[in-house]
Structure formats: structure tokens, C-alpha cells
Write a structure and sequence with these properties.
The chain has four domains: 77 residues, Peptidase S8 propeptide/proteinase inhibitor I9 (Alpha-Beta Plaits, 2-Layer Sandwich), CATH 3.30.70; 285 residues, Peptidase S8/S53 domain (Rossmann fold, 3-Layer(aba) Sandwich), CATH 3.40.50.200; 86 residues, Immunoglobulin-like (Sandwich); 84 residues, Immunoglobulin-like, CATH 2.60.40.10. The protein is elongated, with a radius of gyration of 28 Å. By secondary structure, the chain is of the alpha+beta class. It has eleven helices and 30 strands. A seven-stranded parallel sheet has the order 6-7-5-9-10-11-12, with helices on both faces. Strands 16, 18, 19, 21, 22 and 23 form a six-stranded mixed sheet that branches.
Length: 600
């Protein structure tokens, strides 16, 4: 997280409202997608996203009926398959080959918070080139033994969202809680690929049992969440977000996702849900060996990979999205089938970091999620200064982090209510139909959710900053309406905004007059040359539906609303007089035109 220890997380969210398709494609179209001890590689799916399905989050307050209307306007075959758990995220069924077009259309709708393709992402593992090490070099590098003198992550639960976990492995069997399969809703969490078992052992293999390997989080419990039923390990964003929401509801303290999800608005939304419950999400940066180009994600800790010399590995991604680095090359860990192997990739830097987060939490359970992350980043070894695109805040150091957490004797008693205000629309405005409402909220510890009320009636509740609502003003009679917002923090403290007075006007007004239209430039009779800006403005007693511009009888531009601007290239027209005509049409189809003559 780059919004360093902001208590309210109101910044940085806009980067995830509308995922760009080019970025989403870049996340999956990579070489060397998968590997590990076996050295196997798998081809990407035919399409890098799930066909016939997209992910959409409408703004809070938008009714199911209005949401369905929006879907139908954009694509008559689109229909929602329901919400994802108790979140406002919808899985929307569409006809194959129309996914991209519908995402673009919905992303431009003011009533939609975000829409994105349901991308398929591979586990972030890389085939190792090194021979197997005799010891787990990464544990001494991060001073894990020093951390265990203080914390072994007792009573901490790490959710491992991956290909499943081998429950019979002797170094894992005593650590597993009953898990869940996010793909089919069942309880089969056996490892379908092998990646998940290696990740789980890296974070929290059974330790001090005179057998096998040690985990970073010695006594932490493992909550297996299988997010794929494909033997190639690929997982869709929808299944990852569904699994993360389930893990949050089960009380997970830390969630590890060794997949490239830092650019997914859907997964980020689920990550914020876990954070609102006091948990943290750790994710892999990916193995393209390039700057991913992604902005910092304020709801996930994104991890790059280092080698035994503290150098960034050649294959690790880097950039503004990186929060910390961790060992990720030739990590000796558990393998499916009861054995052990060396695995490499940001997939293993991520669970190393998740394990460090767990021992921090175990050292001082009173720390908030923000404070745990502050300890993680402040205690990291500064490999290349305070902040660097390769290492973020540095390479994690469990020994320093746990000592820092344990020495923190300040207990935060959250008795302050959040501050909240409605900044759009402003008071005194007249509104109609669906109204976009924007709310700011902040707190000394963290805002859990924000609710909007119109004349005391609940419009909707949003748990994701920035707090945005789509209010259907048709539900109230025309006249004066008062909006108010309430923000609640994790301790139940409630802040209330000042009231915003508006006027609702939804009843149609008789359209008695035709519109008037003016060509604001160029002036009548003027001489033109080069590129000339033609400006048109119209007014009406009710509303202007559209404005059209004709030059020498040919329609050259049209715009909805009351204004139009057009750049006219006069270099190729004949010398002499030319007619510019503007036509305005109101909602009742009344038309008015205005013309001027200019000379070339």
C-alpha cells in the first residue's frame, strides 16, 4: 500500500473503478506462466477471460430493477446471475464474444461503480534454475528465528487462496481448518495442481516437529480456499473474490493470493471487505520481469521477489504497485504427495510475507490492520532507500517486525466518530431521475461503511471508498428533499453529515415553446482560414434534446444537450461564401434553426 497508513483508505480507489481492458490482457498474456519443482509449464486458456460472464458493481442505492434496466439497455441478452455473497458485486451473464463491448458500455454509465472482464490468471510461479538448497535460506534472511522468540503466530488464521492443499502432507495435516471450494461451493480443497500445497507450506508448515521444513508463521492455522478446478492452475477473478469474501466471513486474519490480481477492481473490493474486518490481503506481483504499470492498490500488499543476495530476481515484476519484497527464489517447501521441493516465483515471496504479517499479529493482537501494515513496511530492510520500484518499502524482516510490534504498548481506544459530508450534489439544486451522490468519510482508525438517507429513508450502504450512490429520486414526491449520510467505524462509532437540501422535480412540464439557438462563433460575415472552431448554444423552456451543425447543407456534427463545438478545416473548401446552420431540437421534437454566412 502506498497511501501510507491512511486510516480511512479514501484515496487511491479511483484507479480500480474502471479496469482498462489492455491492462487486464497484459496481466495474463505472459511467457513462462507456470512452474515449480516439477518444471511443468501450461498454456494459457484460449481466451484470457471467462466467456459469457463479466463482473459488475452498481453504485450503492441502485435498485435491482434499475440495474436490470441498465443491463437491458446495454445488451438485451445480459442478465445478472446474482450477487457475490453478501457483497454488491454481480456476476452478469452475457452472450459469448460480447463481454468486452458490455464492459466498455457499463464502465461509462454513471450508475455503475465498475465493470470488468472475469480474467483468468495463472499462479505466479516460475520454473527454478537453481539446484535444491539443503536449508531454507529465506528463513535466516528474514530473521524468522528471532521472531519466533516472541511470536509464533498463535491463534492467527491464514487463508490460502490457491489450487487447494494436500491435507495428508505430514507437515500440513495438523494445521488445516475445514476449507471451501469457491468454484463449485463445495468442500473439496484437495490440491488439483500442486501450487497451493507449496504456498501453504511456505507460509505456515508445521514447525519444530523433527520433520520436513519450517513455516514462517510457526503456529498459524491454514484455511484452504480452492479457487480453481482446473489442473493448469488458472483461476478466474470471480472465484478469487468469492473465496476471499468467504474467508473474511470465516474470520481469516491474513489471506494469501499467489496470483496476479493487483489490477482487479472485483478482487480489490473483496480485499477491502476483509480489511474492514481487521484482516490483510497479501498478493504476488507476477513474473513477467517487467513494470506492470499498475497503480498502487490500497487494499492489497503486493510483493516482489528477491534472491539470496537481496537482488530482485530477473523474473519478478516491479513498479509503483510494489509494497514490499521477500525471498522468492528456490524456496524449499512442501510438495503435493508428501514430499518437498524448491519452488521459485513471486508466488512464494507472497506467502513468506503473509507469514510475517501473521507473526506480527501474534506478537501484538491489539494492532489494527493499518498498524500491522505500518510495522511490516517500517521494519523492512531498506535495500535501496526508503522506497524503490523493485522493493517497495524494503525486503521484509520478521525479527525486526515482531520486536517492533511487541514493543508497541500504545493501545488505540477508538472512541471518535467518523467525519462525513455529502459533497455532491450541492445544496439548493433541482434534481430528477437517478441522482449521483458522492460522500466523503474519514476516521482516525477506519471507516467500515457509509449509508445515505433521503428524507430519513435509507437509499443504500457502501463499504468501499470513494463512497458513491445512485439515488432514484422518483421514489419521493416532487418538492423539498433532505439528504444525509452516516458513517460507521469498526467500533460502532457513528458520524452524521450536515443535511443537504434539494428540490426533486420529476413531473413532466408542458413544453410550450420551441428552443432558441445561437451560433456563438464564427461571427456572421467573417472571413475564415485554417481550422475554425464553430460554437453552438441552445436554450429551451424545458430542455434541449440535441444540437446539429450543417455546413453548406451537409450534417457535420451532432451532440446531445444544449451545446456543440466543432473544429472545421477550411483549407480544402472553395473560396467564396459558405453557410453555417445550427438546428436545435427540444424534448417535444420542436426545432429551431439559425444560420450565418462566412467567406473563405
Amino acid at each position: 500500500m502506498r497511501t501510507r497508513y491512511s486510516r480511512d483508505h479514501n484515496r487511491g480507489r479511483s484507479a480500480f473503478r474502471h479496469t482498462r481492458l489492455s491492462q487486464a490482457l497484459k496481466a495474463v498474456l505472459v511467457a513462462g506462466l507456470l512452474g515449480g519443482a516439477s518444471g511443468l509449464a501450461h498454456a494459457a486458456p484460449d481466451k484470457p477471460w471467462k466467456q459469457g460472464q463479466i463482473l459488475v458493481k452498481p453504485k450503492a442505492g441502485l435498485s435491482e430493477g434499475e440495474f436490470d434496466k441498465i443491463l437491458q439497455r446495454k445488451n438485451k441478452q445480459a442478465r445478472t446471475k446474482g450477487r457475490m455473497g453478501n457483497r454488491a458485486l454481480h456476476v452478469v451473464e452475457v452472450s459469448p464474444e460480447s463481454e468486452e463491448a458490455l464492459v466498455r458500455a457499463l464502465s461509462q454509465d454513471p450508475n455503475i461503480e465498475f465493470a470488468e472482464l472475469d480474467m483468468a490468471v495463472p499462479p505466479s510461479a516460475t520454473t527454478p534454475n537453481d539446484t535444491r538448497y539443503s536449508y531454507q535460506w529465506h528463513l535466516s534472511k528474514i530473521q524468522a528465528a528471532a521472531s519466533w522468540d516472541i511470536s509464533k503466530a498463535d491463534n492467527i488464521v491464514i487463508a490460502v487462496l490457491d489450487t487447494g492443499v494436500d491435507a495428508a502432507h505430514p507437515d500440513l495435516s495438523g494445521k488445516l481448518l475445514p476449507g471451501w471450494n469457491a468454484v463449485d461451493g463445495g468442500y473439496d480443497t484437495s490440491d488439483i495442481h500442486g501450487h497451493g500445497t507449496a504456498v501453504a507450506g511456505t507460509a505456515a508448515a508445521q514447525t519444530n516437529n523433527a520433520n520436513g521444513v519450517a513455516g514462517v508463521a510457526w503456529n498459524a492455522a491454514i484455511l484452504p480456499v480452492r479457487i480453481t478446478n482446473s489442473s493448469d492452475g488458472y483461476a478466474y477473478w470471480s472465484d478469487i473474490a468469492r473465496g476471499l469474501t468467504w474467508a473474511a466471513d470465516q474470520g481469516a486474519d491474513v489471506a494469501n493470493i499467489s496470483y496476479g490480481v493487483s489490477n482487479s477492481a472485483t478482487v480489490a473490493n473483496a480485499a477491502q471487505y476483509l480489511r474492514s474486518k481487521g484482516g490483510l490481503v497479501v498478493v504476488a506481483a507476477g513474473n513477467d520481469g517487467a513494470d506492470s504499470g499498475y497503480a498502487n492498490n490500497p487494499y492489497m500488499i503486493t510483493v516482489s521477489a528477491t534472491d539470496s543476495s537481496d537482488a530482485k530476481t530477473s523474473w519478478s515484476n516491479y513498479g509503483a504497485v510494489i509494497d514490499v519484497a521477500a525471498p522468492g527464489a528456490s524456496i524449499q517447501t512442501t510438495s503435493r504427495g508428501g514430499g518437498y521441493g524448491n519452488w521459485s516465483g513471486t508466488s512464494f515471496a507472497s506467502p513468506v510475507t503473509a507469514g510475517v504479517v501473521a507473526v506480527i499479529m501474534g506478537a501484538n493482537p491489539a494492532l489494527t490492520a493499518d498498524e500491522v501494515e505500518q510495522v511490516l513496511e517500517s521494519s523492512a530492510d531498506k535495500i535501496a532507500g526508503d522506497i524503490h520500484p523493485y522493493y517497495g518499502y524494503g525486503r521484509v524482516n520478521a525479527g525486526t517486525a515482531v520486536a517492533m510490534a511487541a514493543s508497541s504498548t500504545t493501545v488505540t481506544v477508538d472512541s471518535a466518530a467518523p467525519s462525513v459530508n455529502i459533497f455532491s450534489p450541492i445544496g439548493g439544486k433541482t434534481v430528477s431521475g437517478l441522482v449521483q451522490v458522492e460522500v466523503n468519510a474519514s476516521d482516525d482508525v477506519g471507516v467500515t461503511d457509509v449509508s445515505l438517507y433521503a428524507n430519513g429513508q435509507l437509499v443504500g450502504t457502501d463499504g468501499t471508498a470513494p463512497y458513491q450512490f445512485s439515488w432514484d429520486s422518483k421514489g419521493l414526491a416532487d418538492g423539498a428533499v433532505t439528504l444525509s449520510a452516516r458513517a460507521v467505524d469498526a467500533q460502532g462509532n457513528e458520524g452524521v453529515s450536515t443535511h443537504v437540501a434539494l428540490t426533486v422535480k420529476n413531473q413532466a412540464t408542458a413544453d410550450m415553446m420551441a428552443p432558441s439557438v445561437t451560433i456563438t462563433k464564427p461571427p456572421n460575415g467573417s472571413k475564415v482560414s485554417g481550422t475554425v472552431t464553430v460554437g453552438v448554444s441552445a436554450t429551451d423552456d424545458v430542455s434541449v434534446a440535441k444540437v446539429q451543425l450543417y455546413i453548406d447543407g451537409k450534417l457535420v456534427s451532432s451532440a446531445s444537450g444544449a451545446t456543440l463545438s466543432y473544429n472545421w478545416n477550411t483549407r480544402k473548401i472553395k473560396y467564396g461564401a459558405h453557410k453555417i446552420e445550427a438546428v436545435a431540437t427540444d424534448g417535444s421534437a420542436k426545432r429551431t434553426s439559425k444560420a450565418v454566412t462566412v467567406y473563405r
